[in-house]
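Hey, I was hoping to borrow your eyes for a little while. No rush at all, and the record is pasted right below:
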Amino acid sequence: MANSYKVGMLSLGCAKNQVDGEVLMAHLRDKGFELSDDVGICDIAIVNTCGFIDSAKQESIEEILELITLKNEGRIKKVVVTGCLSERYQEEIMKDIPEVDGVFGIGANAELGDKLYEMMEKGKLEYFPDKENMPLSGDRVLTTPSYYAYLKIAEGCDNCCTYCAIPQIRGRFRSRAMEDIIAEAEALVANGAKELNIVAQDTSRYGLDIYGKYCLDELLTELCKLKDLKWIRVLYCYPDAITDELLEVMAKEEKIVKYMDIPLQHASGKVLKKMNRRGDRESLTALINKIREKVPGIILRTTFIAGFPGETEEDFEELCLFVKEMKFDRMGCFAYSQEEGTPAALLPDQIDEEVKERRAELIYDIQQRIMEEKNEEYIGKTLEVMTEGFDRYAECYFGRTAMDAPDVDGKIFFSFNKRRPGYGQIVKVLIEDAMDSDLTGSMVD
């Protein structure tokens, strides 16, 4: 049975789901499957789906349908759905898309190899064990370049924001043991990773469930001891759990890049309360000011939701003023997505789609002007840039600074003289111009 089937995976959505997919592929490899780089030509094509908001669900469905087309053409034998969409819509997927051959919940990840063999032998299969059976760790087949990786430190979420289906999909918050995380980090660095991006649904809560206290600061301190590691980046911090100890470690340790992703979601106290989140504009302003004071030069990324049920023009104006005053370095804004099964979906005063989209665009416009101002300040400065690729049309290299997370932030495009940098190499670049959210410059020998 070993090596009898070739399997490929398309992983969608967030970096956390990407890590799950990497663990899943290593599991399948160990079960004797042959891994394919081309999901469009294989025996089993797996879509590791995202099911967080409407746009993500739609992307997942479109990719499933595309693979079914390839199956009908004879290039694929079986199409399998895993991940958040399959966990969330267990009964609907195969009913609505009968051409799908297998649907598996996230709790099936540790058994997927055996289940795929069963599916190939017996036909269509659905399997949804307890979601908390999903492994928190394991060997991975990395899909990122060798010089950076995501390090997932926990699974699930206990915050229960009213707009969010993640607790239903992923279950309660579960931290990994610190020694387990450190061992994986050591292996990633030994494999060439110079940058580790720390991810979870809520990284700042790390340790509370298994150690009885917030331990992200202690974990980061241990990670900083890894000799060949250059950058450690912290993503997805819930604002309530950002401790003084965490900020002190970030300020002190050179390897921790001065960057923090804090999804704030709104600034109106009234809207935040409806979201089942604490705080208001005053308390969030105080938090941002404290972070900037304790970690000088820190780059702050955040996310907002526009058009939440009952959001008045006054609430929206308060959010706009907050964005203008805080001048976040990086920001995303989503129009509220009415997700079935969430408390917010049942709230009165749901807002028209066009109004939600217009409000999100207005927030983006404000942030774009802030970004342009901030980028102008870098012109004439020399920055360290991690080289990531070569743009053959522009005939220049591109990469990221410590200020930019993979996939979500801007890039630096830079020319070179005689010496061509290797991918993953950190070089010095003189910034000469700014365009939108990106910077351009030339490599300094």
Q: What stands out?
A: The chain has three domains: 6-133, 148-376, 382-443.
